[in-house]
Every structure is written in structure tokens, then in C-alpha cells.
Input
Amino acid sequence: MTVVTRFAPSPTGYLHIGGARTALFNWLFARHHGGKYVLRVEDTDQKRSTQDAIDKIFEGLSWLGLDHDEEVIFQSQNAGRHAEVAAQLLSDGKAYKCYCSPEELTEMREKARENGTSGSFYDNRWRDRDPADAPAGVDPVVRIKMPLDGDTTISDLVQGDVTRTNDTLDDFVILRSDGTPTYMLAVVVDDHDMKATHVIRGDDHLNNAFRQFHLYQACGWDVPEFAHIPLIHGADGAKMSKRHGALGVDHYADLGILPETMRNYLLRLGWSHGDDETISTEQAIEWFNLDAVGRSPARFDMDRLLNLNSHYLKEADPSQLSETVLDIAVRNSEKPLSENARQRLEGGISGLVQRAKTVIEVVDSSNLYLYDAPLSFNDKAKELLADSEIQKRISDLAEILSGLTLWDENTLDSAVRAYADTNELKLGLVAQPLRAALTGSNVSPGIFEVMVVLGRDETLERLKLTSL
RNA sequence: GUCCCCUUCGUCUAGUGGCCUAGGACGCUGGCCUCUCACGCCGGAAACAGGGGUUCGACUCCCCUAGGGGAUACCA
Output
């Protein structure tokens, strides 16, 4: 039997971090078992579903690199099939029509709350009532008959055996009065039709599993394996929601987080493989299993994400990363890029990446390579360059450097050191002024590396412009 | 209220009865390296929610309490 998993987002917003992880786990599980991972859009509630949200979710998923198999399923298109199943259940006597008014329902709900004896509230008043009693002009809903006694145990692959007494399960609605299916019916029918073998989803669905379990039984279908993974909480420990900092994955993309970082980070939230922290996607596919999924909720930690990102930034392909940086720079800046921007960036990017945690930081620090002189100076650099003694050093250096025949780090290094030695200066007192003049900043990659990447002409030009 | 789930350093976690005077990672922190900032390296502080059992022996098993979370719709 081939494994079939599915990710079933409801298109009422963007793809947030929790959904992204659910998708990742489903994807990983399917890939690990050589099975299928399919996407199903739960748009049963047409009023709340928007095309925009659907697009955003697809974008998020593809940014994450979670490719799906087969055609995307839109749940709303199966409404006919759902209604058929409900009709069958009705004729089998496993479901019935309920003509209760909203007022009656509210009343029952309040009463149940007062008694405080069970989680269910519907009092089954139409369960065995003669259909002839049906009030005229009322469109009924269809309710499924749940067992009246005994209990139900779900053997969850993550949570273990979870048992619930059946009297806490009431006859829930499977078909609305307008004939459309509720979520509870739709998932069961669709999961069955698409032959899902493993339902991996958020912990918040654990309670639903009990209801769905009986729906499967009423239909005479096999119940899939369930795996309810703990939720990701916000910094305050509450379920992630739009109010609790659950940002869309696109937000992290904009911040300059790499998809591979996100995959690794999300994987480690709730799943572990000994002490391993940085886990490539290939390894993740090889190692992933449901046994190692923890049962307690995790909190989102930006520092960890950033730390992981700096790791993947260093592993990123330099020329590909350069392209990305160039794209962003062009979009953000009104200044024209230097003719040599691409070449310099590719030469200097490894030094830049060494000091960055996000793509955006790489973009910011790459300014020294992207534009030709004159450059702009930050306060620290201006302050340093204002000193006449420093000015002297820079023009001395400009002269010495212009006389060099070789232009590599070693040559530059020894020339500058020699100058520092003869003037009895510590290297820092020479290197910092150079840094200020060459980069416009007090922080940069190694100064000799900068000179090499910039090349002789641009280096000399910058020195000349600042030593006037 | 009721039902369900959870509880190891601040955070993510290792740990499946003796290997634990509880390990790793992020963060914090002392130092080294050093042309700045990073990186890297060496060190430090930091946790088994509480109480009962079971056992020769509990972080690990059971019970209770507390705390946290989730679910309680003709939403998904």
C-alpha cells in the first residue's frame, strides 16, 4: 500500500508558520515512504474563501519547495459527491433529518453548559422522531447518529492511544439546510476518495478525529492513520493566530530567510533526531518519522531561525545568491549600479555572507561593491577621516599602493604593514582609516580582501577622493 | 463549565528504569584570535512543575494537584 498524505489548508488567509510545518511533515512523510503528497483546498465555506488566499498559499508552498503530486483538489467541487454520501447514510438509517430552529439549538447549548456534564449539547430530539412531524417550510439539516454509549479509542501515531467516552459525542451536522456539506463530512469523504493513508494535521483536530472515526464507520470505510502534531505557539504561549505573531511565510522570505533555513527550522520544531541541528532536506527525507515527533507545543524563536539562516547563507551557491542580491538592490536603489557590480559582488560575496544573518543584510553590506565612487560615509567614517593626520596616512598609502605591480592580498598586506612599521603605527591605525576611505564605514570584510575585490583602479580612486 | 492534550535550562530539544553529579543547540556571558565587524576556538551561568506511590534504583512507570494549551458551530 502506498502512502498518501495530504495538506488541506482552508483558503481564508495566508500560509502561516504552523500550516507550513504541517505541510512540511506531510511532504516529508510521503517522500520518506516514496508515497504521494497531495494538496487539497478546503473551500467548503465559499463565503470565507478567496482566490487571493489560494494564490498566497500556493506561493508560500512553492517558496518552501514542497512540490505536490497530482492535481490540486478543490473540496467545493466535490459537493455533489458529499451530498450523495449523506443521502446514502440517510437511507441506511445512519443519519437523519433535524428540523431544529437556531433558537432551539441555542437553548440546548445553554442547558448543556449549565448542567456541565458533557461536551455535547444536542439532545437528539429528532433522532427517532417520526419524519411526519416535520414542520412545514423548514429546510432540515442532516445529522449523523453517533453511538450512545461505550467509548472510542484513537490510536494516534503521535499522541498514542486517546480514549473518549461516546456520550461526549453528539449527533453532529453533516449536511447544512442548504444542502452543502460541512467540513466534517467533506474531509472524511475526500480523504477516503483520495485514498489518504495518513492524516497528519494540527493537534487542534484531535477532537474532530473521534467524530470522523464514526463517520468512517457509518460509511463502512477504513479509517486512515491519524497523527496529530502539536501546535506552534506564539511567544506568549498561545496558539498562533494573526494576533499572536503568526506571520505568513512570505514575510520571512521578505526578511531574507532562505527556504532551506525555514525547512530545517520547522523540522526541528517538534521533531528531533538525536542532537542533530542542521539537517539537509535530503537527510530529513531519509530520517523523518512520526515516532520522533514530540507531543508538546513549541514556541517560535526568531534567534534560532536567524542563526540557522546564517548557516545556510554560507552554504548557498555564491553566484545564485549574487543574482538574488543584485535583483533586490536594483529594486531598492535609485542609484545606478557600477558596471563592475556583478563581478565585484561575486568576488566579495563570501566575505559578506560571513557577517550576515539574512539576505537583506547581505544586500545592505554589498553597497560597497555595487556602486562606484564617490560613496557615502557613515558618521564613524566621517569622524575618522576628518583628522589631518589620518588624511596624511591615506595619501601616503595611495602613493605606495599605486606603485605596486602585483595586486593581491599578500602583496597589499605586506605593503600596508611595512608602512605601519616604518611609522611605528599599529596596523589598526592604518587599516581603519583605509576601511573608512574605501567602504565609507567602520565595519567591513577584511580590508585587503576589499581592495582586491574592488580592484586597483577603484581602490585608488576612492583613496584619492577621500585624501583631498 | 465539560472533554481532550501537554509539562527537562529563557527558547528548541536529547533522554524510553541504573550510562544522568541530566547532554546538545540558540540566546546570554568570561576569554582567546584579530585591521573593524563577524566567523572560529576555549570556558561559564542556566532545567527534570509540586506531592504521593511502584521499584534495590526514577527525568524515565502509576495516581493526585497545579499550571499551560486545544476543542466545544448549519467555520475549517
